[in-house]
Amino acid sequence: MNNQTRRQLLKSAAGVAVVATTGLGLPSLVSANEVAIKPKPLTIPPQLLPNKINGLSTYDLVMQNGETEIVDGYLTKTSGINASFLGPSLYMRRGERAEVIIDLKASETVQLVNVALGRGNIMMGENNNAPAFSFLELRPAQSLSAAPSLPNKLTAIDWLDEAQAVSERTFKLEMQMGMMAMMSSSSHSHSINGKVMDLQRIDERVKKGTTEIWRLENVSMMAHPFHMHDVQFQIIDRDGAPPAANERGRKDVVLVNAGETVRIIMHFEDYADEHYPYMYHCHILEHEDAGMMGQFLVVD
Predict the structure, then answer these.
(1) Is the confidence at residue 10, as pLDDT, over 50?
(2) Res 22: pLDDT
(3) Could you give the angle at the alpha carbon of 270 between the alpha carbons of 204 and 291, nearest 5°?
(4) Higher model confidence: residue 225 or residue 51?
(5) Predicted confidence (pLDDT) per residue in 79-106, tens digit
(6) Which residues pair with 254 in a beta bridge?
(7) Pairwise CA distance, residues 215 & 235, whole Å
(8) Is the confidence at residue 236, as pLDDT, over 80?
């Protein structure tokens, strides 16, 4: 695996695949009998979809052995999940977290592989086509004890009441693209509500103990994962439609697609301070570096 900087690692964290093999390190170019052989391009497995039973999402993962033609004309013994090579894909947005339960078998190695999906915004100097790389390998022992069964319900979520919100704030996610960005005299091409990040400016003041609704409007041509510090929030709707089942828990990152409006609700219950602010920003490194970030205070 090539060594990567933290920035390169975060830039490529857009998709996760599950794979089980006996050493998957593919060479970029090898030679056999003086004949150059190239491995085939990595095929992204299909997205893993849940089974819905009484409101509970479950995933079927079955370990399988087989042979895969990684290099033309050469079969390699491989193992996979729901296939003989590579497991299903779990799609994640930048900044999001997922808890994955894997049913392991004794002595069968499982790797989690990071795969970047999408090319990013080439006009803005972004490129998400980082090579796939393994970031976790699970090595079960020769013998395993059975894990306890999962409960039918993992947790209960207390939903915040929109009627209790004392304020609804609007945040417009903006960015200059193409010739407009290159011709701009400012080095900051990304903004929120027309303002770029300024450490000397407080953009919002929030009262401790109150509930608020934040309206996130993406007026740009690119999706932005919006992240806020201090508290977790709940998604009310996307363009007026209820959120999907996987977005109905507590979150601190939400993807706002191009031209989309997402409303979120949160309760500010702790950590008031008149001098030390919290931040909210786009979770893409280039975008927050270019100014798509703001600060808010929680005050008594």
Answers:
(1) no
(2) 37
(3) 35
(4) 225
(5) 666 666 666 666 666 667 777 677 777 8
(6) 226
(7) 10
(8) yes
- Return phi, psi of residue 262, to 5°: -120, 130
Global pTM reads 0.58
Return the structure tokens found at 5.
């900087």
Residues whose CB falls within 8 Å of the CB of residue 193, separated by 6 or more in sequence, listed in order: 170, 171, 172, 174, 203, 294
Does the pLDDT of residue 114 top 80, yes or no? no
Q: Architecture of domain 162-299 in CATH?
A: Sandwich (2.60)
Cβ proximity of 151 and 47 under 8 Å: no
d(CA 290, CA 16): 27
CB 154 within 8 A of CB 116: no
pLDDT tens string 66-76: 777 766 777 77
Residue 178 CB coordination number (10 Å): 11
Do residues 263 and 214 lie in contact, with contact meaning Cβ atoms separated by under 8 Å?
yes
Q: Which residue has the tokens 């729901």?
A: 82
| Domain boundaries defined on the chain | 6-138, 162-299
Task: Give the 3-state secondary structure of the chain.
Answer: CCCCCHHHHHHHCCEEEEEECCCCCCCCCEEECCEEECECCCCCCCECCCEEECCEEECCCCEEEEEEEEECCEEEEEEEECCCCCCCEEECCCCCCCCCCCCCCCCCCEEEEECCCCCCCHHHCCCCCCCCEEEEEECCCCCCCCCCCCCCCCCCCCCCCHHHEEEEEEEEEEECCHHHHHHCCCCCCEEECCECCCCCCCCEEEECCCEEEEEEEECCCCCEEEEECCCCEEEEEECCECCCHHHCCCECEEEECCCCEEEEEEECCCCCCCCCCEEEEECCHHHHHCCCEEEEEEEC
The residue type at 2: N
Kindly state the tokens that stand for 215.
């309206």
| Percent of all residues in the chain with a pLDDT value above 70, rounded to a whole number | 60
